[in-house]
Amino acid sequence: MKIIAGKHRGRNIVSPTGPGIRPTSSKMRAAMFDVLISNGYLVEDETKVIDLCCGTGAIGLEALSRGAKCVVFIDASKEHLNLARQNIIGLGEEENSTVLRSDAQKLRNAKEQFDLIFIDPPYNKAVANKALVSLANREWLSDNAIIVIEMDAREELQFDNNKFEEVTTRTYGNSKFIILRKLSTGSFGIDESN
Fold first, then answer.
1. pTM here?
2. Beta strand extents in the chain (DSSP E only)
């Protein structure tokens, strides 16, 4: 696997050889960032990112490559975090990265809030639904945070319509991603016509 764009463009990242990790494909990563960018949401030097259920860390590292201020890589698996850490070190992004072992469905209370959250949980286990609740209840989300969730194309996402607004859903083969925006005052508009 390679980083697609930004300062680390073309750099290799280590991907797993065995079962247990399903890295987000380059095509899906490109699509996620393209949709965000085309709708005016730029990853900039003040953007704070969470890569939840991070696996290899590919999505978070893509965000860092594109200019994010920092990324917190979270996964319940020690093996996955070791792989993410290896990739972080390989790209020299230790100063901008925090690695945290935690169940996505039972996060601890946040010490700060984040602007852009990627959730790539195991498919068809309803992890994303509980992760959204945990992120909101434990105060990880900044005002108008953007959340990008990757799921099986047939899987349904359940979320509180009083807390989140669905921006768009894009399907690619057997997978899809859903973009949500946290609802609060001074809402951030995204054009869905693209």
1. 0.90
2. 48-52, 70-75, 97-101, 114-119, 141-152, 164-172, 175-182
